[in-house]
Amino acid sequence: MTQALAARARRLLETLPASELPLTYRQLAEALGLEPPRTIQRVAQALEMLMREDVDDGRPMIAALVVSRRGEGLPAVGFFELAVALERFPADPDAQLNAYRDEFQRALVVRG
Fold first, then answer.
1. What is the pLDDT of residues 35-81, one digit of tens each?
2. Pairing between strand 23-24 and 66-67?
3. How far apart are the C-alpha atoms of 51 and 89, rounded to whole Å?
4. What is the pTM of this model?
5. What is the DSSP annotation of the chain?
6. Gyration radius of the chain over CA positions
7. CA atoms of 49 and 59, how far apart (whole Å)
């Protein structure tokens, strides 16, 4: 189920106009037609799967195009934690914001 949801999320993020990005987790859940309960949790799991796939394949993380509505235009903490664990972002929290901005731009450029 998560694999299919991740594939649908990737297609959506690759095809939305750049002017509509970033999306919030809730906007992505709605665009995917998810119904409660656990909509945000399912979106987060799908995005984590995409992060792993992208890092394994040497691509920018398309999950960088999804942000928290409470995070000042940034993804949730879990995104940063996984990006560090996957060795895509530095462990130093002060350097992660710049790493995220770079990743966001790269993800925008390489979309479908």
1. 999 999 999 999 999 999 999 999 999 999 999 998 789 999 999 99
2. parallel
3. 12
4. 0.95
5. -HHHHHHHHHHHHHHS-GGG-SEEHHHHHHHTT--SSSHHHHHHHHHHHHHHHHHHTT---GGGGEE-TTTTT---HHHHHHHHHTTSS-S-HHHHHHHHHHHHHHHHHH--
6. 13
7. 13
